[in-house]
Design goal:
- The chain has helices at 12-21, 42-45, 62-68, 81-90, 108-114, 121-124, 132-139, 150-164, 197-200, 214-226, 259-269, 323-334; strands spanning 2-7, 27-33, 71-74, 94-97, 128-130, 144-147, 173-179, 205-206, 232-238, 245-252, 276-278, 296-303, 308-315.
- The protein has two domains: 2-148 and 322-334, Rossmann fold (3-Layer(aba) Sandwich); 151-315, Dihydrodipicolinate Reductase, domain 2.
- The longest helix has 15 residues, at 150-164.
- By secondary structure, the protein is of the alpha/beta class.
- Strands 8-9-7-10-13-12-11 form a seven-stranded mixed beta sheet. A six-stranded parallel beta sheet has the order 2-1-3-4-6-5, with helices on both faces.
- Helices cover 30% and strands 20% of the residues.
- It starts with a strand and ends in a 15-residue tail after the last helix.
- The protein has twelve helices and 13 strands.
Length: 349
């Protein structure tokens, strides 16, 4: 058993982490934190956790966390993890950060996309980008993991085989993402009017036009696969779902190919991946088929008229786009089966 703490456990991402970790066969959950709700039993804040945990939320104290836990998950607002990570690592704790603080390799990108300087560049240089399908070998034994952003996970998985195999052109990549309200920038039980029922229900709205920060992750990871810089035109949307994230990417092909040929490339690329399901020609991913899980369902169709690959993926923004992917990272870091704590099938209907 390993001792695990969760900082930011009162947010949706943190609460989902707790739900997964209390069922994990190799984890003892020792500490959960919340600045806003310190002193409250976690099961009172999230009644679905009744009988599963008796832990009480505490204020964030990195020294205490490192003393009580061998691995610490950080589910904190962006730019707050930078204050905790140096202390945690100095005290010997391994860190899996679900914020964006350590995802981008170039510290200058934080100035561009987050309008702030990066104050922990030493640890930034050592962080491993936490998408197992691309970085499994580097994750094994890593001590600082930067788990991927939700939109980035859906988009990168949808397009990775094309760029890795040199099948895509580097110009004109267009990505459309649609997220439920527990993603889309929501930090816990957000009171921003954008997330109110009367604003979100029966409504779809684009946001972060040409400025969404996950664009940088897509360009970083896909560019690394392609071996050359590329640009992605990304537009996110808020849709009236509790959870779920749907991505449609339009990628210009370098040469003429059929849908069947491209699907064969995808099947080979993801062969043996425990949580990526490449659907057969004619099948379509849906968010309902992955909710509550770490699965990514995806497919691709070639539009012969435009010579573009239309790549479609569905994930749970709190699952493969967040907490469940973090648990998969934990399993790899600690040498457990990647399925540990993630065996439950998606929830349907």
């Amino acid at each position: 058993m390993i001792r695990v703490g969760v900082a930011g456990a009162s947010g949706y991402m943190g609460a989902e982490l707790v739900r997964l970790l209390v069922r994990h066969p190799h984890v003892e959950l020792t500490d959960v934190t919340s600045e806003r709700l310190a002193g409250e039993p976690l099961a009172k804040v999230y009644p679905h956790l009744r009988g599963l945990t008796s832990l009480t939320l505490q204020g964030l104290d990195a020294e205490r966390l490192a003393a009580e836990a061998q691995v610490v998950f950080l589910a904190l607002p962006h730019m707050e993890s930078q204050r905790a990570v140096p202390v945690l690592r100095r005290r010997g704790a391994k860190v899996i950060d679900l914020s964006a603080d350590y995802r981008l390799h170039d510290p200058n990108d934080y100035t561009v996309w987050y309008q702030t300087s990066h104050d922990d560049q030493g640890n930034l240089a050592e962080a491993v980008y936490g998408l197992p399908e691309l970085h499994r070998k580097s994750l094994a034994g890593a001590s600082l993991v930067a788990s991927t952003g939700c939109y980035a996970a859906g988009a990168i998985l949808a397009m990775a085989p094309l760029f890795k195999n040199g099948l895509a052109r580097l110009e004109g990549v267009v990505v459309d993402g649609k997220s439920g309200v527990t993603g889309a920038g929501a930090q816990g039980r957000n009171v921003d009017p954008m997330y109110l029922f009367t604003e979100a229900n029966e409504n779809i709205q684009a946001y972060g036009l040409a400025t969404h920060r996950h664009t940088a992750e897509m360009e970083q990871e896909l560019g690394a696969l392609a071996g050359a810089p590329l640009r992605v035109q990304f537009t996110p949307h808020l849709v009236p779902l509790n959870r779920g994230l749907f991505t449609t990417a339009s990628v210009p092909l370098a040469a003429s190919m059929s849908t069947g040929e491209v699907l064969d490339v995808y099947r080979e690329f993801y062969a043996g991946e425990p949580f990526v399901r490449v659907l057969d020609e004619g099948q379509r991913p849906t968010t309902r088929s992955v909710v509550g899980s770490n699965y990514c369902d995806l497919t691709v169709v070639v539009d012969r008229r435009t010579n573009r690959a239309v790549c479609v993926s569905a994930i749970d923004n709190l699952g493969k786009g967040g907490s469940a992917n973090g648990v998969q990272n934990l399993n790899i870091v600690c040498g457990f089966s990647e399925h540990a704590g993630l065996e439950a099938p998606p929830v349907y209907p």
